[in-house]
Design a protein that fits this description.
Blueprint: E1 11-16, H1 19-30, E2 33-37, E3 41-45, E4 51-56, E5 65-67, E6 70-72, E7 75-78, H2 82-91, E8 96-101, E9 105-111, E10 117-123
Parallel strand pairs: 1-4, 7-10
Antiparallel strand pairs: 2-3, 3-4, 5-6, 8-9, 9-10
Amino acid sequence: MPQAFLSGIDHVQLPVTDLEESIHWYGEILGFKVIGHYGESAMLSVHKGPNLMLWQTKNYSPVRFNKDGELKPVLFFSSGDIDNLVKHLKEKNVAIASFDDGGFAKFLKFYDLNGNLVGVMQLADKR
């Protein structure tokens, strides 16, 4: 068995068009806190999991990919209250791409203010 050189995922990076506006959006909409601000980038954190690094870029293109004609997010968050998150996003006029119950989990896909496709999943209770 190969040696395990990696211990986990430290952070995920997303491009943004306006760093300050994006910091505010991720804070207000999703509850992220800034843990570092580095000029044209900022590191944000939420309860657990990898941190989120936002990079302001002039050559912006949204992050997502196409699989058999369906746009897919490259980033998925986890949630323990996805139904109320959907209500909150609708109240904040966030563009929701889809919200599905896959049986073993619920899946939400929405666009951030920069057009990045972001996903959230909540595993079903195993009662």
